[in-house]
Specification:
Blueprint lengths: L8 E7 L4 H5 L12 H14 L7 E4 L3 H11 L7 E3 L19 H4 L1 H8 L14 H18 L6 E5 L9 E5 L16 H4 L2
Parallel strand pairs: 1-4, 2-3, 2-4
Antiparallel strand pairs: 1-5
Helix pairs in contact: 2-3
Length: 196
């Protein structure tokens, strides 16, 4: 792929593979849940797909096991690049909502459900966790730091979860002076990435 601008950092954002809680429909937030067998297969498939990308120069990941394990499988395809852990790439902390079944949330806490499923950039602090504004500050700060350290590199890879920098599997050209609305990304499964 041709470089858009040498002052930009090209980033491929990858969501972690499926976890045991994903399969059950439980809300994870920052609970450290392992990948299940499907998630490991998904991570290997994405690693294989990404192995055709030229010159991935760095691999960043949340420190949560599901993201880190996904990142390690991908990094192994690039001459054993070391995965750099960054706590700021974690998913949104949703406090007491962590561990609840998503399908039960509308009845248990309609206000939290509305805030969680909204695209609005708000200060609603879900169940004692992070507001979307706090999440945005944390993730944007991390992305700006990473982009500044890799200006002109092509591409970077990050693994994250639903409410991290981007739950989708996307290619982003990031200039650290820009301010992207990461909270508008929607959740997609890993299959969406290699199907394109």
């Amino acid at each position: 792929m041709e470089r858009v601008n040498e002052s930009c950092t090209e980033i491929i954002i990858v969501r972690h593979g499926e976890t045991y809680w994903n399969a059950l429909g439980k809300m994870q937030g920052q609970t450290d849940v392992d990948l299940n067998d499907v998630g490991r297969q998904q991570a290997m498939a994405v690693a294989e797909r990404l192995s055709t990308e030229p010159d991935i120069t760095a691999v960043y990941s949340s420190d949560l096991k599901r993201a880190f394990d996904t990142a390690q499988m991908i990094a192994a395809k690039f001459h054993g690049l070391q995965v750099i852990k960054d706590e700021d790439l974690r998913e949104r902390h949703i406090g007491e909502l962590q561990g609840l079944l998503f399908r039960d949330l509308p009845a248990l806490n309609p206000k939290a459900y509305a805030a969680l499923t909204s695209n609005e950039f708000d200060d609603e602090n879900l169940g004692g966790g992070e507001s979307r504004r706090e999440l945005h500050r944390r993730c944007t700060s991390s992305l700006q730091r990473i982009a500044a350290n890799h200006r002109g590199d092509s591409p970077l890879l990050m693994t994250t979860g639903r409410d991290g920098l981007g739950p989708n599997h996307q290619r982003v050209h990031y200039n650290s002076t820009q301010n992207h609305p990461f909270w508008l990304f929607k959740n997609k499964k890993l299959e969406a990435f290699w199907a394109r």
